[in-house]
Specification:
It is a single chain. The protein is of the alpha+beta class. The protein is built from 35 helices and 16 strands. Strands 3, 4, 5, 6, 13, 14, 15 and 16 form an 8-stranded mixed beta sheet that branches. β8 and β9 form a beta hairpin. It starts with 5 loop residues before the first helix and ends with a helix.
């Protein structure tokens, strides 16, 4: 076939229109333009020339094809199609093991998305090279996890205006706005020192060592922000980061010294409170016996005694008062600030009365030092609870065992995938993971609680309101005569209002329920470090659970064994135990009674878990099947007992499990499954809290119906993961290195459920305590204001508010304990 050259093509479009070597078929003039040029180029370069009608030139002829070649091509295509159909039939009829070893190879192309490519719908694009190249290329970081997620996730466009989408955007925006405070990982006390010059740090090194015993609680900036705002950060990344484990021996010594200091402080503050309250009661009492020992005291002497008691109280609690006032100026007030302000104001008022004692003699002012000392005593009791809890948890974590921590599924897409079908809200999924070591022990122990959050708002508001009322009433009573008496009345009024709206039990409302839950957790080898634990996990609505945790040792027993076809008992038990131990079956504990030594177990190759059927694996080049009747039938195993007989045996003796070796039925096991009493109690409470269970199970005898019968747990709150999602479960429960965690789970029992329930109880009790304290503060402020405006200022004594706060504190404690 003759081909055109570039010169011939260019000569066609010459000005004179002459051509050489090219003859025209028609008398029409030659066409000029791109289309004709493309036709010529195609005809010149292609092995399949254009037809004569399209080309317009007689020398571009068709290439004759022989009939023999056509027959060979057809026969080749027929053979290829026949082989492909045979392979497809073989794949469909083969076993899962054969399909796994001999998979069909598909066309390998990049993973793309047509939905987000911007080129219209999928039907408009017609799978072609052009539409494929215009699609958006997907580059997942974890290909295995992403492929599984795509297999189980419907490919639909997300509704951007839906309530769920708005909730997600709001949560992401909130999480990005919260920045985790820096923390010195090697610090023993968990205190974050402020950046200082090197010379200053060297000069104050000895002072910092003394502050270890004085500063019991880190400041607000030292306390960790809620881990709920950090859920985007993967626990795997935290485990792989370069954390430094806590030196538990040094932490223990520090806490022991700290406990002694706080205990002595509590004793001193209690004595000071009793002496000051006794003095106040005797002054107001009409009984001669009570009033006799104070009638000889002058007003100046009484004010001097109160100033002395207050000075001792400030000296004993100086670290707390210093830190509480500092947090006020930093706009991070806490329960220390709530107790420190009345103490300072009451002491200043008593000091002014000591200078101008006639104000007290004429009953123009009152002294409120007893109420301030009582507030400091309650604050010290709360600190003592913190240290006792820290010592208890330190004792648990000091054991030389591998730690298990309670974490959460950090990726929202993964959480939705695992809980699809049982959670219709934003899924917050918790999981238990093993860790080599722990860090940030004291940081979580001293984390801020709900009372600190309440005091952060209540303290400045109460101080401003009290100051405004005090100034107004002082101006009303004494005008603008700014004398010493005027300031005595001002500070007396200010002490009155601050005492009235003081949240006396703020340090107890979270530490009391934490003390109780910490004791419960320590009895089972678990540890609930601080209120951060409750804040992290109080809203968990799903829990990843392995079936072995629901059926601990003793709840699954092998009740009977029947042999077939002359199989040996030792071989059968060894094969079954090896397969059960390799798969993590609930029968693993039952076989430990017969084969306690794991070293004699055989290795399992090419293990496969068939959903709802059983286990399959190769042991010593033999295929071993371990499952129910349906599995044996699907693998064409003969010699099974009749169905009525099997059903009767299962009803009377327990679940029936068969063992097949090399395609021959070898044994039949009778398995008895019972519910553990402790697990039943925890499952009952989990049901009340509507916590869903995502269960990984490889046994055919453990079904949702069976779990419902044993534990009376609703089936709509449970989900058994298919085998294709087991690797996702393992990904979220894999081992970690040195981890920063607020909860640790014991090695025995269903400890995760107990910790989750404890976190919810602590949260509810703290909410009730906060409500009671807010009511107490508002009611006290209203009572004080009403009495003053009605002219009953004389009745607003320290004795009145001592009784008032003691009664409200007892009511708050009772409400917290009942709710807990």
């Amino acid at each position: 076939m003759a081909k055109f050259t570039i010169e011939d093509i260019l000569e066609e479009y010459s000005p004179d229109g002459k051509r050489s070597k090219i003859q025209r078929d028609a008398d029409q003039p030659l066409a000029h333009g791109t289309l004709e040029t493309e036709k010529l180029l195609s005809a010149a370069t292609s092995d399949r020339p254009l037809p004569d009608i399209q080309s317009g030139y007689h020398h571009v002829t068709k290439k004759a094809e022989s009939q023999e070649e056509l027959v060979d091509i057809k026969s080749t295509i027929s053979n290829i199609k026949a082989k492909k159909d045979a392979q497809t039939a073989l794949n469909l009829g083969g076993s899962p093991l054969m399909r796994e070893h001999f998979p069909t190879q598909e066309l390998k192309r990049e993973a793309v998305s047509y939905i987000k490519s911007g080129r219209g719908s999928y039907e408009d694009q017609k799978i072609s090279s052009e539409s494929y190249d215009s699609a958006v290329k997907l580059t997942p970081t974890n290909l295995e996890v992403t492929e599984t997620m795509n297999n189980h996730k419907p490919q639909i466009r997300e509704m951007q205006d839906s309530t769920r989408a708005k909730e997600k955007r709001r949560k992401r925006k909130h999480r990005r706005s919260v920045v985790e405070s820096n923390y010195e990982e090697n610090s023993i006390t968990g205190v974050i020192p402020k950046p200082k010059p090197k010379l200053t740090e060297e000069k104050n090194s000895s002072k910092k060592k003394m502050d270890v015993l004085q500063e019991e609680l880190p400041g607000e900036e030292d306390k960790p922000t809620s881990l709920r705002s950090m859920r985007q950060k993967s626990y795997r990344q935290m485990g792989e980061s370069n954390h430094t484990p806590d030196n538990m021996e040094q932490v223990w010594n520090t806490l022991c010294n700290l406990r002694n200091v706080i205990f002595v402080r509590c004793i001193i503050l209690l004595l000071l409170t009793l002496v000051s309250a006794g003095l106040e009661i005797s002054l107001q009492a009409e009984n001669y016996v009570l009033h006799a020992w104070t009638e000889s005291l002058t007003a100046r002497a009484i004010a001097g005694i109160e100033v002395g008691l207050a000075a001792i109280g400030i000296g004993v609690s100086f670290p707390t008062i210093k830190k509480g006032l500092l947090h006020i100026f930093q706009l991070h007030a806490d329960s220390d600030s709530m107790a420190a302000i009345p103490m300072v104001i009451a002491t200043i008022g008593a000091l002014l009365v000591l200078i101008r004692s006639d104000a007290l003699a004429h009953e123009m002012v009152h002294l409120y030092v007893p109420c301030a000392l009582l507030a400091m005593f309650c604050n010290a009791i709360g600190r003592l609870f913190v240290v006792r809890r820290a010592l208890r948890n330190c004792r648990v974590l000091s054991k030389e065992t591998q730690k298990r921590v309670l974490s959460y599924v950090s990726q929202e897409e993964m959480a939705e995938l695992l809980t699809r079908g049982i959670i219709h809200d934003v899924p917050i999924v918790a999981a238990v993971r093993k860790a080599d070591a722990l860090c940030d022990f004291l940081r979580y122990t001293y984390s801020c609680d709900m009372a600190d959050t309440m005091c952060c708002t209540m303290t400045p508001i109460s101080f401003i309101v009290s100051l405004v009322l005090s100034l107004f009433l002082t101006f009303v009573r004494l005008g603008t005569n700014f004398s010493l008496t005027w300031f005595c009345v001002l500070f007396s009024m200010l002490s009155l209002f601050l005492t009235a709206c003081c949240c006396l039990a703020s340090a107890l409302i979270s530490n009391l329920p934490l003390e109780r839950e910490s004791k419960r957790a320590s009895n089972s080898g678990s540890a609930l470090l601080g209120y951060q634990s409750a804040d992290d996990f109080f809203d968990v609505n799903a829990l990843l659970v392995d079936a072995g945790e629901l059926f601990p040792t003793g709840s699954v027993q092998i009740a009977g064994l029947k042999m077939f076809t002359g199989a040996k008992v030792d071989e059968v038990l060894l094969d079954a135990a090896s397969l059960a131990h390799h798969a993590g079956s609930i029968l693993k504990g039952a076989f430990e009674d017969t084969i306690p030594d794991h070293e004699v177990l055989r290795s399992v190759d090419q293990f496969v878990c068939e959903d709802g059927l059983g286990l399959c694996g190769w042991i010593a080049n033999r295929r071993v099947l371990f499952g129910g009747r349906e599995m044996m039938v699907s693998h064409n195993i003969e010699g099974l007992p009749a169905k009525p007989r099997e059903a009767k045996m299962a009803e009377t003796e327990g679940e029936i499990v068969y063992l097949s070796v090399s395609g021959v039925l070898s044994a039949m096991f009778t398995v008895r499954i019972t519910a553990d009493a402790a697990i039943q109690r925890k499952m009952r409470v989990l049901k009340q809290e509507n916590i869903s269970l995502v269960i990984r199970c490889v046994d055919h005898c453990v079904t949702l119906h069976r779990i419902n019968q044993l534990f009376q747990y609703p089936e709509n709150l449970m989900k058994i993961l298919p085998a294709s999602m087991h690797h996702l479960f393992q990904h979220e429960t894999s081992d970690l290195g040195c981890i920063s965690a607020s909860m640790t789970v014991g090695n025995e029992g269903f400890g995760a459920a107990q910790l989750l329930l404890g976190a919810k109880r602590v949260r509810r009790a703290s909410v009730i305590g906060v409500i009671m304290q807010v009511i107490s503060a508002l009611l006290g402020l209203v009572l004080a204001t009403i009495h003053i405006f009605t002219g009953a200022y004389e009745t607003m004594t320290a004795q009145f508010f001592l009784v008032y706060h003691l009664v409200l504190t007892l009511i708050t404690i009772m409400a917290v304990k009942i709710r807990n």
